[in-house]
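Students often ask why we bother predicting the structure of a whole assembly rather than each chain alone. The short answer is interfaces. A chain on its own may look different once its partners are present, and contacts between molecules only exist in the joint model. In this exercise we take two input lines together and write out one structure for the complete complex. Read the inputs first and try to guess which parts will touch.
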Amino acid sequence: MSKKDVVVIDDDELTCMLIRRILEREFKFNIVSFKNGLEGLEYLENHNPDLVVLDLMLPGKNGFEILKSLRKREEFKNTKIILVSAKSNSSDIERGFDLSADEYVTKPFQQQEFVVRIKKLMRAS
Amino acid sequence: MFGTPTYQAVFFLVAVLSLIFIFLLGYTFWTRTKNKYWNRYGRKFKDMFTPLIFDYVDSARKSNDADAVVKKVTRRIQDIELFIDLVDNMTEILSGDDRQKLRWLINNPRIEHYYRKKLNSTRRGDQLLACVYYAKSGVVELKVAVELFELCSSKNIKVAFGAAKALQSSTNHEMRFYALKDFFLRKDATELMIGELLHLFHHNSNPIYQTSDQSLKQLLLDKNIRKERKEIVIKYISHHNFYEYSTFLHQYLQKILYRPDNKSLIKHLIAAIGVLRVEEAALLVRNYAVYPDPDLRVCCVEALNQLGGEENLLFITTMLLDIEFDVRKRIIQTLVQDPDDGHLLLEKFMLTHLKFITKIWSSDLQSHDMFVIVNKLQSITQGIRIASANKKQHLKSTRP
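Now the answer. The structure tokens for the assembled complex follow.
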């Protein structure tokens, strides 16, 4: 079975590193990461990953805008998108799901919980 | 010509200015190079320790496991600071057991010992570093608490504030309360410092929430604490919507006598009563609404409007004939913005008084006093019209 492709867009270096570690250790995914919303979106113009892990507060373009523009495109219909954010307001979570995010993980999180959520998502796909 | 005193003075000035310029240039270059070096060093440190700490988080089972990681950090101040910062940033991402393991790193005896020495130092910078550390790690030992209490009475406000903040990380409620109270009694503490300390003392997630609730009441009742500080506590209570204080605030307002030095405190209490909607205090607020101080009356108008209810709104409407323009203006503004009956009450007021004005004009009752009253009524009705038109325009512009 071919390795799944994952794009991580998060401006926080530590979060990016942690997510990379978890995904590499638990799932052996191919991971590409970006610190800037615009750079991430530019990469996604020509690539169609299986999973996108997206921070909400990003320089360039925020997570909601990226999510919105991805969901408009037909080729991203089956791509799983997880929002990771320190924003834990119910209105933000609701907005994320309204824009059809598949999961919403609030920071701080437990590694095990993050793994379980991704496993569940990938099983569903 | 070159030997003249003027030329010598100019030459001397140019030489001095050139020297200052060269010194400043050199200093700027040196500080930039130094900053670049430390930034590079910080990045390398982070690159080296981040995977190490993540590995430790994955594998650690008991607090002693932290020793292996901590041993790798040299005893240099910069390294220890960078390490603490890194672990601190990680605690913002990880929760649960992972976070507990990160705490083992911060609380490791090697690091604690290092900061304990800093706490005993006479240098302010060292004392501050130690305070910041203990605020993160938590004050567990009594000896440390005693030293921090000593720093709380330092003449340097920054050190005293740092120590008071560090003591707020203790699990001992008495200790936290006395640190807070000591700081409240200082004359040099700023409003922001008091607010921050109050927040640390009273934050929701703390298991001692119930007891700290009593402590805020004690602070308000303490005669030694200045009124400005008490006003901050009242503001804090209302901004955080602590409804459990409603009855207490009502009783507290009943207890305070109206005096010029109590005016500001009373205003803060009335504002809080409005925000927390302490309906049982409405009568007391209505009593204050007829006091001669216009600022107090404005405050009462706002509070009564927030309390709502037919009786309070009618009372505000009767205040429309107030002598002060500012009070009348605020009443119109609050009633126009009122989502329920405010607008109807204003309309009723306008109709009644317009009828009255027409009657006056057509009768023989015209006198100077009457003319003043009619002018005031016309100004009020005009104010109502302007405020209503503004509201309509605002609604139009915000409508999608």
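Check your guess against this: The CA atoms of residues 67 and 118 of chain A lie 18 Å apart.
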